[in-house]
């Protein structure tokens, strides 16, 4: 059988060698310049390359860089996209309140003071999960808590509801996971004692070093900063919970990263196996693509040098651009309205359905069809892109809002504040510095 190079190979020079990334499988190789040039020279006849480089050739096949001639990778992605879009895993998000204890200037949500999910809506959610299980629609459920601040009514809403849903999944011998997108301020020891039975994951945000953070994430009640409280709770979570992971999201603008060393020092004693860092620009401060953001580059280098796993750019192997593109996914607001996208205001005109008394979601099928009836990557700019398997196109919400027209400016690569070559090198360095995966070295003179 004839062999060919994958359509999704990216090769970048690094320190005199060549780093290769196959985005279809998210695998890396390291080649000498000589071997890389030899590979290019024999790209039309790879068996000749194989005869002189058997070990390297086998590794390139194993890692997806070389594939059979009759393999259509794009159609494979299309198939996997359909499989994942309609599989039996349920992504359920619950918004117990749209109130919050903080007032961050960039928050896009309209907070509703004293809003709290009622016992009636809680019962409807339980009935909803019971119906899904009774109809044997799902094999697993991931329950995400969002807000507002989802821990505001922890004892009244969040804990009793998450416990009962977990019990339903356990009784039916289905997989259950839960996670909390929280500012982390309200976490304390009694709450974590209850968390022990849930094995939750967390996303908790810091806005950079202490001085910067305390100017942004301030308490509504007294206006005081929250940095020390949040950092203390990061340590408390990692110390009290054995099976957990915290994604520390660092929201940054042009000034946030200038004193990032202070933040690294404050986080330096955290258990690296339980935390990772995600870097995300505050979108209101974006000024278009900045492929040469030295501060960002230096921040990533500093974090990886301190053995933190760093996530930037939202490029990971997947088959949907967002979980909202999946059929079995819903966000249930405190008032019983149902939304696919949780990145837009929870107002009636954005609602995609209602949670009925029976527990059934009454979907607006026209809106549902418009969102998931077409794969987000079926755009010319995506179909020719080597990053397609790690991006899968713009989010469906943006596609809908623009009626699938003039989508070029919505390309995820346009938000990347480094070149694609630098991104490949960053990802390669991150892989090795965290020692989480073992890439194969194909280094030979």
* Topology-level CATH name of the largest domain: TIM Barrel
**Record field, number of beta strands:** 17
Q: How much strand content do the residues show? A: 15-25%
Which homologous superfamily in CATH is the superfamily of the largest domain? Aldolase class I
Provide the CATH top-level class of the largest domain.
Alpha Beta
Assign an overall shape.
globular
Quick one: biggest sheet?
11 strands, mixed
Q: N-to-C terminal Cα separation, in Å? A: 29 Å
Number of helices: 15
CATH architecture type of the largest domain: Alpha-Beta Barrel
**Domain module tally:** 2
In the sheet with the most strands, the strands line up as 12-11-10-9-8-7-6-13-14-15-16
CA-atom Rg in angstroms: 23 Å
Proportion of helical residues: 25-40%
* Uncertain ranges: 434-445
Please state the structural category.
Answer: alpha/beta
The overall pLDDT average reads 92
Summarize the structure.
With 445 residues, the protein is α/β, with parallel strands linked by helices. Helices cover 34% and strands 19% of the residues.
């Amino acid at each position: 059988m004839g062999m060919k190079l994958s359509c999704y190979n990216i090769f970048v020079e690094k320190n005199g060698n060549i780093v290769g990334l196959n985005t279809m499988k998210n695998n890396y190789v390291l080649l000498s310049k000589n071997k890389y040039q030899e590979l290019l020279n024999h790209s039309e006849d790879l068996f000749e390359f194989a005869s002189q480089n058997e070990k390297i050739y086998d590794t390139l096949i194993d890692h997806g860089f070389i594939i059979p001639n009759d393999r259509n990778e794009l159609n494979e992605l299309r198939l996997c996209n359909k499989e994942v879009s309609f599989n039996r895993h349920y992504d359920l998000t619950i918004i117990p309140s749209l109130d919050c204890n903080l007032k961050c200037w960039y928050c896009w949500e309209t907070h509703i003071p004293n809003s709290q999910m009622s016992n009636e809506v809680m019962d409807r959610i339980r009935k909803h999960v019971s119906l899904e299980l009774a109809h044997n629609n799902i094999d697993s459920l991931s329950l995400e808590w969002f807000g507002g601040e989802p821990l505001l009514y922890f004892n009244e809403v969040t804990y009793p509801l998450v416990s009962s849903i977990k019990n339903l999944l356990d009784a039916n011998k289905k997989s259950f996971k839960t996670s909390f997108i929280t500012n982390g301020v309200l976490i304390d020891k009694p709450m974590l004692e209850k968390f022990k039975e849930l094995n939750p994951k967390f996303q908790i945000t810091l806005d950079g070093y202490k001085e910067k953070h305390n100017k942004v994430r301030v308490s509504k009640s007294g206006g005081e900063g929250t940095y020390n409280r949040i950092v203390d709770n990061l340590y408390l979570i990692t110390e009290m919970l054995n099976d957990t992971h915290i994604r520390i999201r660092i929201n940054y603008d042009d000034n946030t990263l200038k004193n990032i060393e202070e933040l690294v020092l404050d986080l330096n004693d955290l258990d690296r196996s339980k935390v990772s860092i995600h870097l995300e620009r505050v979108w209101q401060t974006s000024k278009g693509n900045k492929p040469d953001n030295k501060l960002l580059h230096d921040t990533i280098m500093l974090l990886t040098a301190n053995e933190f796993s760093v996530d930037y750019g939202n490029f990971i192997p997947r088959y949907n651009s967002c979980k909202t593109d999946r059929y079995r996914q819903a966000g249930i607001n405190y008032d019983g309205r149902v939304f696919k996208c949780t990145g837009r205001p929870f107002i009636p005109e954005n609602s995609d359905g209602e949670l009925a008394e029976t527990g059934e979601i009454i979907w607006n099928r026209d809106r549902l069809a418009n969102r998931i009836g077409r794969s987000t990557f079926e755009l010319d700019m995506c179909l020719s892109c080597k990053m397609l398997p790690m991006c899968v196109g713009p989010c469906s919400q943006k596609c809908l809002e623009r009626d699938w027209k003039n989508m070029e400016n919505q390309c995820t690569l346009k938000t990347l504040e480094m070149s694609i070559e630098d991104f490949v090198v960053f990802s390669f360095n991150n892989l090795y510095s965290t020692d989480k995966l073992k890439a194969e070295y194909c280094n030979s003179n």
